[in-house]
Amino acid sequence: MNDFLDPSNVCGQNLLRIVSHGNATVAKLYELADMIPSVFRLATKQDQTNFSDLIVDFSYFKVSDSFDRKIDNDKLLQEKDEGLRETYLDLLLQFYILFENIHQYSIELERFLNELDEGVYIQQSIESVLLDYDGKQLLCEALYLMGVILFTMDQNIEGIVRERMLVAYYRYSAHRTTSDSNIDDVCNLVRSTGFVRNGKRPTNYPEDFFKRAKIRPSFARLVIGRLRSDDVYNMISSYPRPEHRSVGLANQGAMLFICLYFAPEMLHNESAVMREIVDKFFADNFVISVYMGTIANLIEHWDSYKAAKAALNNTLDIKNVRSIACKFNNEMSELNPKIAQLLKEGVLTEENILNRINEHMNTCRQANVALRWVMLHTVPLPGDFLENASCIKRCKQLREQIVSDLKFNPIQLFRLLLNTSEFELRIRETYKQLLSERLTKLNVYKNEAFERINELAEVFSGSKPLNRLTPNDELQKWFQSFAKQIEGLQFTENFDQNQINWTSRKIIQLIKALEEVHEFQQLESNMHVKQFLSETHNYLHLMVKTISIREEVLITQQIIADLSYAWKIIDICFTKFMQDGIKHDPSLVSKLRAAFLKLASALDLPLLRINQAGSNNLMTVSKYYSNELVSYVRKVLHIIPETMFSLMAKIISIQSNKLKELPTRLMKDQLKNCAQLDDRFEIAQLTHSISVFTEGVLAMKTTLVGVVEIDPKKLLEDGIRRELVRQVALALHNGLVFNAKTKSVDLIQRLSLLVKTMDGFRRSFEYIQDYVCINGLKMWQEELSRILNYNVEQECNAFMRQKVLDYQSIYQLKSIPIPIFLPLDPYSLTFIGRLVKQITNFTDPKNTIYVYSLSAWYDSKTHQEIIDGKLFSLILKSIGVTGTNGIDRLISFQIVSELNIVLNEIDANFGRNKSINELLSGNNGQLNSDTPNGIITAKNFVAYYFPLVSRMGKIFTKLSDSIGRIGQLQILRLSLAHELSMASKFQARQLSSALSTLNSAIKTELEQKCRSSKSSSTLSANQLVCPIFEDESPLLYELSNYLEYNGITDTLSKVFIHKRLPPHLDTILLLLLASQMSKFVYVKEISGLTSSNASLKSGEAIDGVPYVIGILTLLRQFHVELANRFLKLCSQFVNAWINASAVSQTKQTTEMPTEAINMLHFLHYLEKFGCFKRQQIAEYLPSILFDQFNALNIAISK
């Protein structure tokens, strides 16, 4: 019969594939458990308020029709539901695939068992597979992994969350309609068990949960029987001492712990079996590692099982526990100094390791057993179930007793871990080197021994005289013969065991012969001969030891050095001590490397079967566990950049507050005072401390952890980046906090303080970069840009239906995470949102007047200045170019939102209102027939349009507010762009000039292409535009980013949305203006329109310039023909009001109507901001009226 794992053995390969699938599924469970969207937990009040009507558990299936109907009838719920679907569908799909894989695993395992029963695999059955060494391992692992998957899923993904995600996936995905969908079975398997960590234990948990996998009880009993009786993994050979048996069988014990839940009657009733299991596997331990560091306390988990609980009583006996704790206390007291002594320089030489390898292996074994027991039984566990007070109390009492009896000192345990790790690493590296150089060393030893014996033969022949030594023919012949025997030893690259045994016996015979000849009086009395014989004797001994080097020693060491049980608890136990040790002695990092490599050995457990199966999951699983370990290494070593930054804070303080810049010219007698020697000496001390920490990290060698390589320089740089991000994000978060009483002066002060803080960071980084071997300026700019872009992205999410989640963001990195702070107000998520909210509040067009010539905002009541251009200069200095551009981007999203509000209101009140739509169409048609020349008279306007203005007054007021906000936001964008442009021209003149030139050249080329395309009458409308964008080069995209960052942009020409043109929009905008014109008044001092006193008193105030720019922005979203028609209607509006005034004027009233003069001012600003040609506006107005309407109005009024 073939080997069970042979590629030609179909039975073995299928079972191996199933086990490989199980290990990969557990890794995916761990990975996705960290990616659960918070919205599906409904943990916050905000999430409950927003999504409780949309995110539900399996109760949905009972009321699915009414639930869907409720959403269909509510437009707001529809929008939220669509947003959830677009945002989370990809992630929900990953979770569903995971749950489906879990279900598939149980199906595959049952199918394999059925195939064994049906004889599909010739001469194979469940019993015969369990008799095979590899077969029984794989069958036991298959059942064990099924339990681990269920156990891990319930521990890491709450049942209610699983149900909510499955319901969401069911509703949002079309997969449920396919014929091969097994979503019903998946839902049944992963539905909530009622388990909540630290909550009440559900009835019959977890055995009822495990029954869902539909594993046949007979198979479970066979596996449990095999695990009970056999040393399945042959671990006893690695742990030969009886007191170490439970550690050798620890993995097997963990498998039994899981598999027993598939046969719960054994836990309940079979006392003899449970007693046997406890005596063999848990006689001296009751806290176990289930899988990759998942810890379980048998006291707690077996408390509800009668037979298991009774069997465990002997283990939990106070005397037994005290005896074990005292034993390990003594061992730890002995091991720490013993291993520390072995680690001294010059002790662990190659010769020492060769001669004492067995002793060293016993020391490693003893240290690892002590580490395992002490770590597992002293770690504070919160417990999985809290309903049984007596059980929890007993767990705490036993732990406290163990801590007391051990005289537990965590630092002593940490020292033992470090010493053991380094001890193992040195032995492993030396032994590997010996193994790889074995053939070379054997030949060297042989040659050295041969040369010495041959030289002795020459001495006794008389050809090479030696003092007081007479020639001896017999000894000469003997040494020549002996030399030939040494020369005859043959060593090959690959020894088999027979060759090793034969050669070893031959060398031992030579050693004995040498010892016998050594006793001759003539040889004993001569020191030169004695030395030669002693050296030869030593070389022969080294040959025996070297030829006996076996790879099995490394395998045994790998087994006993396993630290997978501490995969999770090492963070709880040792992180603080590691960081404190590094803080006091940075050179400790090189010792920690050994501990990290020891922890990396845990990766062998899940990867072994995946590798044997040749699965495609090998790289993904390896990468996941490796990255997790690297993340932990980063966490431990983060104390270095953290300490560096605390020292840098002192440098910043000295540089910012104490150290003064030297003047350009300095008198000789002032030199000492200006030198500030004490302050500079303190900076030098702090700088030296920082450089010492840097050396500590760089002293660590480049290390391969799993499949990820740790480069100490990269690790240091990432650590510095991480701490920089944390510090800067915290400074921005705390520096930009506002409340309802914040005034513009406070805003200026906080921005000024933030400028000082950020400048201090930048200066200290610039100062320190040479001492820590980093490119400080590059790091500063990259990380600051990432922080700002991420926060802008989070704020923009509020305006997007498909939100960018953290794992999708290009700015959020797992290795260098950007801190996420809780929102400080209900309107903003981050400091960027708070800053923009504050600026928009201060520049609200309902409360302020914007003076275009001064680029400043004034209070509409007190006429006091609120904000001027200095604010935007401070913004640029505090958050840089990226932050300023980010604010522009966020404001653009707000403009899009306001534009959508305007167009939706127009669509709802005009487009969908049939009567209004027909009335507008009829009026326009009637006017065109009544006025063939296109001139609207006052009579016409009053007859046709005035009733609509009165009827839609409330709607027009609401629209005017939105348009005013659009104009306000556009003015803010203009100010930001101006600040960026000026900064670019002053600080990056060559870049600004190059970008301007390139921009002009590309615009000219595009215009030429457009004109040449339009000249061809045979092309369609789409073909006329498309040639401009035929080139798929990213030039335009990249260039636009550069232009925006440098403020080279036409802000008011930007197109924000692409929507269908609402019918009669030109007429609607005219009516909107007609309804608002009486609310404006022209103020000569500011040369602009502003709210009249009447509108201020009525609460309908609106500023002129924002209103004009708001209308212009709305016009820019559509074809230029809309603007042309609108300008025509506005001109006719002026004609109509002047005509009405002329008809009704008396000798006492000779002024122009307010509406007409305001509309002329409006058109004047529209021409100015929109860059319209005068002819477009003056086409339907007398030129003199538009050119000199101010002077005419003054003259008439006089």
Automatic annotation (TrEMBL):
Domain of life the protein comes from: Eukaryota
GO annotation, cellular component aspect: endosome; WASH complex
Pfam families per record: Strumpellin (PF10266)
Single GO BP term: actin filament polymerization
Family recorded in the similarity comment: Belongs to the strumpellin family.
Name by which UniProt lists this protein: Strumpellin
Source species: Blomia tropicalis
